[in-house]
Amino acid sequence: xxxxxxxxxxxxxxxxxxxxxxxxxxxxxxxxxxxxxxxxxxxxxxxxxxxxxxxxxxxxxxxxxxxxxxxxxxxxxxxxxxxxxxxxxxxxxxxxxxxxxxxxxxxxxxxxxxxxxxxxxxxxxxxxxxxxxxxxxxxxxxxxxxxxxxxxxxxxxxxxxxxxxxxxxxxxxxxxxxxxxxxxxxx
Length: 187
Known about the structure:
It contains one helix and 16 strands. The chain has one helix spanning 97-100; strands at 2-4, 13-16, 20-30, 38-45, 51-57, 61-63, 68-78, 81-86, 92-96, 112-118, 121-126, 130-138, 151-156, 161-165, 173-177, 183-186. It has 187 residues and is mainly beta. The strands form four sheets. The chain has a five-stranded antiparallel beta sheet with strand order 9-8-7-10-11. A five-stranded antiparallel beta sheet has the order 14-13-12-15-16, with no helix packed on it.
């Protein structure tokens, strides 16, 4: 299935030969005084998230990719794979850690995530903006050491290490921003 470059829209997914699976971030139709019209685009690679710029001729056909988004619940880890269950069909799906990208450390058993599927393969994960995780290990805050904005490393239940304020103790639940990996607040 293909689409004309004149019909591109932001968020549309394309399967380009050189770049692979990309989404349209920005596009601009350009009609110069001389020569043919063209479409200048910014495309974000689904794998890795890097942004590339590409120019197409006007009305050029490009392959359209239909990405299926499924809400799935993370059940458990089996070797290097994460096992998810489709919340509608109850089918189980084994997803390799590499396919999850940087979102693996934010997943704990029972969490729900939206998996982006393309031709029966997971190509990305959408997480909520913030997740709640328990602090499993951190140094105790020293009494009197209350430097404004001072931070210490804390290891969370999933193995993720984030910088937290000095008052956070082991066993507490904290909110972590899934986009930046930063501490937000106590839960």
